[in-house]
Amino acid sequence: MCKVIRILHGFLQTSGNKGVDAAILLIAALLISGSCPVKANAANKTESIISPFGYVTDLARLVEPKVERKICDLSIELERKTGVRVAVVTVPDLSGFEIEEFANELLKHWMPDPAVRAQSILIIDAPNEEKLRLEMGIAIDTMLTSEAATRIREQVLLPSLRKGDKGQAYLLTITELAAEIALHRDVTLYQLKGPGFLKNQPAAAAIPPGRDRDTSSSLWFLPVIMAALWIGYRETRAAAVSPSKSKRTTIS
Question: Does the domain formed by 44-205 have CATH 2.60.40.10?
Fold first, then answer.
């Protein structure tokens, strides 16, 4: 806009009529500012629309309460043990933003600290515009291999979205991401109760010293129990047969 006004100013200066020059410049500035969107207010526009509600900001009403609780529980433990922050955001539409710009503005607004922003994961879904984005901070790249990212997207996120349960899709995606990050950071996340997750966590898979010796030595009493059961069975059978023989002897 300033460039256009400078061009007009240079052109009108040659005419020598300063009164007309000022009037035309004022009208041009008003017309241009009124007809063009002002991108400088993009951040303020985002702030006025979106405010975080914990780990799940579900403005589009896509996540069931029980699924939201599971996401929050896992996200709390993940952030407490690894420093990685996860947030799920659903909005009916993007209010004129491109989804990449929308994600960047949210990250800057919600996580002003660059160190926190670098360790953040943001899932944004705008169902009315059929747009979804998984935004990750730069530090997440060091915790997540490209193969793992591709597997999560192709085998977890997209198939789950096709089933129509978006809340479950978010949960499964965060679960897979959390498992990979926990493996990288060498920590155990006890919220990961799905099959295959706990055994892949080093702290949970590690066997305490002496565990094998204790387990094998604890089986020594099994033969003793089997022998006692057999003796008990023989004695019970003998007691059941003996009264009948004495009764027949008395009758004869």
Answer: no
